[in-house]
């Protein structure tokens, strides 16, 4: 089997390239390999769609959580501020 | 409290943009949620917030006012979070979690030709198109699946996808080689996606 053909049928390698592509750029050869693979592999096309969405969801998760008002309880905050005042007084 | 007032005036003379007397009220919740989304351990997140304020007090004189107070405090916290990542991911005992996670994906692909094994095929399950309003329920599952990842993998993954750190920073902070970085990124996604498919349907 030629090198290109091996890649064309290799989902493990294709999913690796899908991940790499989202962070870094692929080499020309890698781009070609991935294109050929995805043209013939609907399972990896699904993987790619989901992978991209997952990265976005993970990114959003942070922002939504920070907007969702996670708060510390008052007692902890009071103690913390007292601690800071103590330190300030030492100076 | 005269002593405390004294401290304020000294501080505010030197540092017009810094007011430690208001730190907790102004920034504690923000810093807490920052820490919690990255390490998902309430107690540890509280500790980090406290450590951040105390460390900031030590460094108050170095604050040059080039960034906002919150940005400056967040930067201190961020370094503390990375320390936690580093400790967690280098702890010898924790390495077993990587072995387990690798085991999980052993039969995702046929070892001879690299094909997906049919039982592990990624199936469409409603997350193929991006929807920022994806339900809370899905976010809960996403978080749970992330927590199942080995500490090192989760650290690499969050530093890349939440903090958008450069690959070289991640590699040097967490002491992973460049090639291992890509292996981790790939394996993390394989397990995370599989976990989501299993738990969402």
From TrEMBL, chain A:
This one is known as: Zinc finger protein
Q: Which organism is it from?
A: Mucilaginibacter jinjuensis
UniProtKB/TrEMBL annotation, chain B:
Q: Establish whether keyword NADP is in the entry.
A: no
Give the RNA polymerase sigma-70 region domain ranges: 24-89
List the Gene3D superfamilies. 1.10.1740.10
Sorted UniProt keywords: DNA-binding, Sigma factor, Transcription, Transcription regulation
Supply the Pfam families for this chain.
Answer: Sigma70_r2
Give the protein family.
Belongs to the sigma-70 factor family. ECF subfamily.
Q: Know the name of this protein?
A: Sigma-70 family RNA polymerase sigma factor
């Amino acid at each position: 089997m030629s090198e290109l053909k091996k890649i064309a049928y290799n989902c493990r390698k294709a999913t690796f390239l899908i991940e790499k592509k989202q962070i870094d750029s692929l080499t020309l050869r890698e781009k070609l390999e991935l294109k050929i693979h995805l043209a013939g592999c609907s399972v990896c096309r699904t993987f790619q769609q989901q992978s991209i969405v997952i990265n976005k969801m993970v990114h959003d998760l942070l922002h939504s959580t920070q907007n969702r008002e996670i708060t510390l309880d008052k007692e902890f905050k009071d103690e913390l501020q007292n601690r800071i005042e103590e330190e300030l007084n030492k100076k | 409290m005269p002593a405390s007032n004294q401290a304020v005036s000294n501080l505010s003379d030197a540092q017009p943009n810094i007011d430690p007397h208001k730190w907790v009220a102004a920034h504690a919740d923000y810093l807490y949620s920052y820490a919690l989304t990255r390490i998902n351990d309430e107690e540890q997140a509280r500790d980090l917030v406290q450590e951040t304020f105390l460390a900031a007090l030590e460094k108050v004189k170095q604050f040059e006012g080039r960034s906002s107070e919150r940005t400056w405090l967040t930067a201190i916290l961020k370094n503390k979070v990375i320390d936690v990542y580093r400790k967690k991911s280098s702890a010898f005992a924790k390495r077993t979690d990587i072995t387990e996670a690798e085991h999980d994906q052993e039969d995702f692909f046929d070892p001879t030709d690299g094909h997906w094994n049919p039982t592990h095929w990624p199936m469409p399950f409603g997350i193929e198109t991006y929807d920022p309003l994806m339900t809370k329920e899905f976010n809960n599952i996403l978080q749970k699946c992330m927590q199942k990842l080995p500490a090192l993998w989760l650290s690499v993954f969050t530093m890349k996808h939440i903090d958008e750190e450069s690959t070289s920073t991640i590699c040097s902070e967490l002491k992973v080689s460049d090639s291992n970085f890509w292996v981790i990124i790939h394996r993390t996604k394989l397990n995370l996606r599989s976990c989501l498919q299993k738990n969402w349907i």
